[in-house]
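To close the chapter, one final illustration. This time we ask the reader to focus less on the individual chains and more on the assembly as a whole: which components sit near each other, and how the overall shape emerges from the parts.
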Amino acid sequence: MIGARKKGEVVETKPLLSLRNIRKEFPGCLANDEVDLDVLPGEIHALLGENGAGKSTLVKMIYGVLKPDGGEMIWAGQAVQIANPSTARALGVGMVFQHFSLFEALTVAENIALGIPPELSGPGLEDRIIDVSKSYGLPLDPYRGVHSLSVGERQRIEIVRCLLQKPKLLIMDEPTSVLTPQEADKLFETLQRLSSEGVAILYISHRLEEIRKLCHKATILRLGRVVSDCDPAQETARSLAEMMMGSDLTSAVKAEGRAIGEARFKVSALSTTPDDPFAVALKKVSFELKNGEIFGVAGLAGNGQSELMDMLSGEALASNADVIVMEGHATGHMGPEERRDLGLGFVPEERLGHGAVPDMTLWENGFLTAGRGQGLMNNGFIKTDKTKDFANAIVERFNVKTAGIEHHASSLSGGNLQKFIMGREIDQNPKVLIVLQPTWGVDAGSAAFIHQALIDLAAQGTAVLVISQDLDELFAVSDRIAVISEGRLSESTPATETTVEQIGLLMGGLHEAEQHGGQAA
Amino acid sequence: MIRIEARPEAAANMVYAAPVIAVTLTMIAGIVLFMIMGQSPGVALYTFFVEPVSTFDGVTELLVKATPLTLIGVGLSVGFRANVWNIGAEGQLTIGALAGGAVALYFYEMEGFYILPLMVLASIAGGMAWAAIPAFLRSKFNANEILTSLMLTYVGLLVLSYLIHGPMKDPDGQGFPESRLFSDSALFPVLIEDYRLHMGWLFALAAVAAVWVLFSRHVIGFQIRVIGMAPRAAAFAGFEEKKLVWLSFMIAGAASGVAGLSEVAGPLGQIVPSISPGYGFTAIIVAFLGRLHPLGILMAALLMALSYLGGENAQISLNMPNAVTGVFQGMLLFFLLGSDVLIKYRLRFGR
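The assembled structure is written out below.
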């Protein structure tokens, strides 16, 4: 998949960036402590660690978004203070964030012009964009509106925006989490090209295999400290994960020989006509969920997954009640509470603000969806003790690391909050559980735990739908897989009869076809 | 150049310190203001903040003024927690007072225990009806309730003006735009003989307790908090936003209506062209100064009531203009909002 590595090309030994004893403290949390890091020119340097290990804090300090509480930063031999991102950019640091900040209604060139110094954004910008995008293999049309671009293309805008400023160090935060395997391979070629030109790359990712293939060096953080510097090629994905977690990794085990029952939940020809011009219309989506089976839906973000989730959870209502049928009940016109009463459970993609209320305590967040079905209230009065017992049981059973259920949801790391939300839905014994991106941005340990929980739930006879961009995840848990692309759902295939590559091609199929003038990719 | 930038993390305890800081700064600014006006700051502050409550009579008068402020502040806080910005309490108060007052005038020749409960019900219905208009416009057409509720206030005041110059005018009143005096059965009983403190204060305390229970124990309060803090989580959980918008307006309308009645059936004893010196607007300050918490609102209402009494006292003793009350209330809100901004953001000087 990834081209031959050009090791040994990193001949220069004087570091471009050195961090010494970097320390950053947030209230109640030491995010970075005694962190040392050396990045050589031309080096692709991986920064690894579980969620909450301090990777983002560290790169935000390098990019001037946060200020370190202690320690030194040395840039090309000179001690520097990076007070803000424009200082960082002036030094030659560029950063591609995980979440893009693009204006949908503007064109590619207009978006780029907004994010770079005025002297660079003058006339001729379109030509310079074309030059850079051609020479680095990042095809991009400066005149196109951003709303019509795929996520991979949007990422290219961010990369080109950085490259126009001729960076010496490029920081990339989980760049492949939004790409198809094929798009990711193209990105790796670009990164290797930059590396060969002497640009250093600081690369954050959860995908250990790609780090093993791409990166020259890896620095592993755990609980804010550096625990290891290593050559990732000499390690296995497993050994890297174990260094990150500081314990042995257990991967999810599928229950074999389960009896898969009859269809319990059926969606037939579900179509939507969104009011929002940037939302994806669902086009005759049909599938069924069977007792004891995990059905996986693959697809790149922005191909109708969130629209589908809203339709299934009842946050949006179908135009026709009987396109969604749960055990013989037409549910298309029911709200979320009524659907939960029928035995449906949901886990949305966004944890903070959608699946949980950030500024409410964990027990209140337990009440959020379980209050009605679990008898946690009496004539509308909340049974506080019973609700707290419910929340404590989740914390215990799902191994949620928290200082207590009186703490706010926002105080938990992504993985732990996701375990809590997942536990809240599973502990209500749903007949059907529908989850969107269950392990997005979640550390490896929590992800394995969540996968096992889903598999165990299916083994008890629950019908499970997992919608995810992460193919490894889908292959780890699913019995059947289908692909959603531009609002259409493909036929499903048993997971054992297909491969990551085949699914990957289906996922990117339509976008690729468009770019190559209609030729099938 | 001065820039405002977000603080990385806002200090949680500062949320409660902000009202104290705001009150302190208002005092300091008040001292400067008095000095500019040629008054001795010590005497002026004493006249404004201490003298009014130095007698038992003064304390009861403070509670009389705090009654409508507490009622409305608590009522509005429910909506504000749900991001429902009903700022038309003044209008809801006016219509509530007119509806309750209409019952009193209908029965003006009669005595009876049933008159007062009917008046209370009528004032609740009147306040709710006036609040129902912005609630309907918001939930049906997504019209901004800030505009609709505010504009309806002026309509409400014109309705009052029409009625008091027309149908409700006292036929024996020599043309003065005032209603008949309410009969004894149509007046809120006083709590202490010879003082003006009346039953409305008990309504205010009951409202504080009810809203406190609503938010600390009841699922409706929970739903309102969720909708205010994380609307998508509320939709995910299946809480119906429209229902809660309606409920917020109805609670505020009912509370404002009773507040209006507690003026006309309390200290005023009749309907007059200006029922309230802006209680409906001041209560917005009260709600935020009290951090939208019922007990905080009770304290804030007492403080704002003091500013009314202090302003009156300053007019009498120091010959200061009537506007001094508004100046103090305005400064308090200004400093509170300023403190709130500086809790979340900080100033950076240079470059």
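Confidence is low (pLDDT under 50) at residues 1-10, 510-521 of chain A. Chain A touches chain B through 33 residues (CB under 8 Å). With these observations in hand, you are ready for the problems at the end of the chapter.
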